[in-house]
Each structure stands twice: as C-alpha cells, then as structure tokens.
Design goal:
Strand order of the largest sheet: 5-2-1-6-7
CATH superfamily of the largest domain: NAD(P)-binding Rossmann-like Domain
Mean pLDDT: 97
Helix content: 40-55%
Bound molecules: D-mannonic acid
Low-confidence stretches: none
Distance between the termini: 62 Å
Shape: globular
Number of helices: 20
CATH class of the largest domain: Alpha Beta
Strand content: 5-15%
Number of domains: 2
C-alpha cells in the first residue's frame, strides 16, 4: 500500500477532503509546542480552514517535547495526516468523515534538536507560538498557578539555556534569541485545560525570564501577548485498529491519523501581537474575555469527564459511551451538572444550560469514539484543582452541599488503590503517583475513616487551602465508605436517592 504524502494525496477517493492549496507556498507563521492528537484534531483543523481560504502565512512547525514518534510517522508523509470525524448515523451505526490536513509543514523533536526549536521561535516568519503541553507541562503548582523554580525541568533549563527541556524554557530562550535578532513580538497562546490559561502561561514565562534577565522579562511583558482560550473537542487516543481503518478508507497508508467527535468549540481572546489566522472560518469565536467560557467548559465538560472516568474505571466500564449508558451513572452526571455545577457558573448571554447539558450527554454517548476512561483518569493531581475543586470551593463558600462533587473527588481517591472492582490492576499515571499511592496506602488503604480522609485532604499540591475543611471531609467520608463497602453501582444508587453527603 502506498504511503500518504504530497505525491499520493491527489489520488485519494473523492469523498476525502484534502488540501486544495499549494503546500510548497506555505510560510510557517505558527510554532506549536506539544504536537499531540488534540492539537492536530482541533487547532490545526481550524488553521487548515484559514489556509484553504488563501492565507498562506499560517503553516505550522510542530514540536514534540519528548518522543520522536509523531515526527517519525509524519515526516515521510510530508506532514500530511488524516482527521477522522466519527459519530453514529440515525440507526446508531458508526460512521467517519475523513479530511487530510496539510497545515503541518515541519516537525521538530526538542530533545534531539533544542537549538532548532529556539531557531523556529526566533524565525522572522513566526508570529504565534501555541502550546498543548497538558496541565503538567507548565511546571506550576496547580493549587496556586505559580511556576515552580524548583521543578527539575525548570532547574535544568536555567542551568542549560542552550538545551531547554520545558516548554517554558523553550519559549523564554527562543524569545531571547528573537529579540537579539531584532525580530518583532510574538503571541504566546496556551490551548490547555487550565483556568486563565493565557495568564498562567504569562506568569510562568515572566517568572522564568526574571530568573534569566530582568530586562528580558520586561521586554516580553511589554511586547508579547498571551490570550486566553477555551478549547473543546473530544479526541480519543488513536489505536492500531483506527490506523488500519483510516488507511483502508484512504486507499493508502496513514500511520498517524487522529480521531475526533463532530463537536468543535474554541473561544479565544482577540489579543495578538503580530496578526492571526481568520480562525472564524474554522468555527472559532473571538471574545473579549475567555474566562466565563473556560469556567463553563472546565467545570461542565472536564469536571463531569473526570468524575465519570474514575467511577467508570473503578466499575470496569472501560469507555465513556459504555459508562454513560449505565443508568445510575447517567442520572448522577446529569444531576451533578444541573444541581451542583451550573449554579456556580456566570450567566453567559445566549447560553441555554439545559441544552448544553443535553448536548454534552449526547457527546458522551457517541458510540464511535471508544474514549477510554483510563485515558481521562491520568494526571488527576494536575486536573482536579480546576475541574472539581473550584466548583467545590464556590459551593462551600456559599454554604451549599457538595455530595455529588465529593463523589467525583472520592472516586479519584478510591482510584489510587490501583485495582478496579473486577480485580484488574492498573498503573497510576500521574506526576505525583509515588507520593499519592504511598499516601493512599497509609490512609484510605487502611479503611475509610475521618482521619484517613483528612490526611488525603492535607495533600497540598492538589487540595491547597481545602485541607482541614470539615464539610468536605464529611462528604468525602460518606462517599468513600460507600465506595469501599458497596462499590460504584450501589454508591451511585445511594447518591441518586440523596443518601450521600455530610
Ligand atoms: C479529557 C479531555 O483526557 C481528558 O482529561 O477530559 O481531554 C477532554 O476530552 C477535552 O478537554 C474535551 O474538550
């Protein structure tokens, strides 16, 4: 079977959308750090629409921060890959719509070529550096948002400016090189699931730059822009079966396709230092303040996603659609949104929360994605603060109960056991895994007691000022006793009957 590349892309089946522009004429106006599946199914798809409309300034240099696999797969494909949008037809039969994306023009692997990454950021054509490096990639304290100068990658980068390992180090030393060459300011755009992601990025970049050269920090603060974004598209990990199915449909081999749901949303602050693509052509909304959109998405989508993931993983419901098909879980997730999350959201003009809630449940029920609960369960220490704990803080401050929110947090604590209810063991994939599993074994592993719960709540990198909160501890104890004694399904029945909580 031939490989997908610039020579074979023209012979694809007519049903497959492909680049209709001259890729050789593309300039690389965007450098993206963290060229993972989400970015290729989301931001690259929106950028493709702007390029297809004739603006050839916005080709993408994709940078992998750790592994060479994306470069190794896409370089022989001239950067081309397939976006497979999957859902079900009216009869519930899975279907896919294929689009070959041409926006990625160059690929770098930072550990192999750190100088190349700094050169790309410093290049005259570059106008935007965007990031999807996941929550842990900011080397910050999730509870406070501040950059940790003692983080091993940050400490390494300050000592080895020529070969930074962290995205933050790459940005600062790339900007330093850029300014030395007299090239203009950049927009640094975070697309990660963090509250005020642009402000978190700005704070981390400036703190790192201060440690390098205060004058550099001042130039960055004055000249560069850091818009906040809310991004939303469910992008499950691609399996070998997916690669085979896409290649068969193409009639040529694509070793690195990405999958996505039809739903797409991106609200970004229109605050750019040197221009930007017309992403409205790809369905993007430019807003004055992204915060209300971020809060809505992080709490409603990611908060319910994480709750569902830990409950589903522990019950052995391996994919989101299989989990949401369990009536007690669906009832819980719907009530979690309606009764505990939505009351904490600011009014967004024109937003129908009941419709948003119903649409989200339909997204979770998509039978064509096979989005694994274990995939969503990873990095819980980095995700819970913005996905669940913000809602909990707001409700506790208002004197409101949190039985359903507490069940999501309790399910994460329960998940640290490392064995699901069917007896299947799994690794805890989390930057704090060693500390958390040791803490679990010393506390909840000995049984659900108020002392055990309070010890878990005292884990400052996750819970910060929630340590010692008695209302939360009581709600967590109620949920954990039920989970440990009766299991997930019975606990869901109990919370749906209103029997959990302080
Ligand atoms: C998921 C997100 O893996 C996860 O943590 O909750 O990747 C989620 O699919 C996206 O944020 C949806 O926009």
């Amino acid at each position: 079977m031939n490989r997908l590349n610039d020579h074979t892309v023209g012979a694809l089946p007519a049903a497959v959308t492909r680049p209709a522009y001259d890729r050789r004429a593309l300039n690389t106006g965007i450098v993206h750090l963290g060229i993972g599946a989400f970015m290729r199914a989301h931001m690259a798809a929106a950028t493709e629409a702007a390029i297809a409309a004739g603006d050839l300034r916005w080709g993408i240099v994709g940078v992998s921060l750790r592994q060479p696999d994306t470069r190794d797969a896409l370089q022989p494909q001239d950067g081309l890959y397939t976006l497979a949008i999957r859902d079900a037809d009216a009869q519930g039969r899975p279907r896919q719509r294929l689009q070959v994306i041409g926006a990625v023009r160059a690929l770098l692997v930072a550990p192999e070529n750190p100088a190349g990454v700094l050169e790309a950021i410093a290049a005259a054509d570059t106008r935007i550096v965007s990031l999807t490096v996941t929550e842990k990639g900011y080397c910050h304290d999730p509870a406070t948002g501040a950059l940790r100068l003692d983080h091993p990658d940050i400490a390494n980068d300050l000592a080895h400016p020529q070969a930074p390992r962290s995205a933050i180090g790459m940005l600062v030393f790339g900007l330093q090189l850029r300014l030395e060459r007299g090239h203009g300011p950049l927009t640094l755009m975070s697309l990660d699931n963090l509250p005020a992601n642009g402000r978190v990025l700005r704070g981390a970049v400036l703190r790192f730059a201060e440690a390098v050269d205060p004058a550099l920090a001042q130039r960055i603060a004055a000249d560069c822009r850091f818009p906040c974004s809310m991004v939303d598209r469910i992008v499950p990990r691609t399996t070998d079966a997916d690669r085979a199915a896409v290649s068969e449909a193409l009639g040529c081999e694509d070793r690195w396709p990405v999958l996505g749901e039809p739903f797409f949303d991106w609200a970004v602050e229109d605050d750019f230092a040197a221009g930007r693509p017309d992403w409205t052509l790809g369905g993007v909304r430019f807003v004055a303040d992204a915060e209300p959109f971020e809060r809505l998405k992080l709490r409603m989508v990611n908060g319910t996603h994480s709750s569902l993931a830990y409950l589903g993983a522990m019950a052995g419901w391996q994919t989101v659609d299989k989990a949401i098909a369990q009536a007690p879980l669906r009832e819980h997730i719907e009530a979690l949104m309606r009764d505990e999350i939505e009351p904490t959201l600011a009014d967004l003009p024109g937003l129908d929360l009941a419709a948003y809630r119903a649409n989200l449940l339909a997204r979770y029920a998509n039978p064509a994605l096979a989005h694994r609960t274990q995939q969503i369960a990873m990095d819980g220490s980095q995700k819970l603060p913005q996905r669940l704990l913000g809602t909990v803080r707001d409700r506790l401050a208002a004197g409101l109960p949190v039985p359903r929110m507490a069940l999501g947090i309790a399910a994460w604590m329960h998940y640290l056991r490392g064995v699901d209810e069917l007896g299947n063991a799994y690794a805890i994939d989390d930057p704090h895994a060693a500390d958390l599993t040791a803490l679990y074994q010393r506390t909840l592993g000995q049984g659900a007691s108020i002392e055990a719960v309070q010890a878990m709540l005292s884990y400052a990198p996750v819970f910060g000022d929630l340590a010692g909160n008695q209302a939360l501890a009581a709600a967590l104890l109620s949920a954990l006793r039920s989970l440990q004694t009766h299991g997930v399904r019975a606990t869901l029945d109990a919370v749906n009957r209103g029997e959990l909580g302080a």
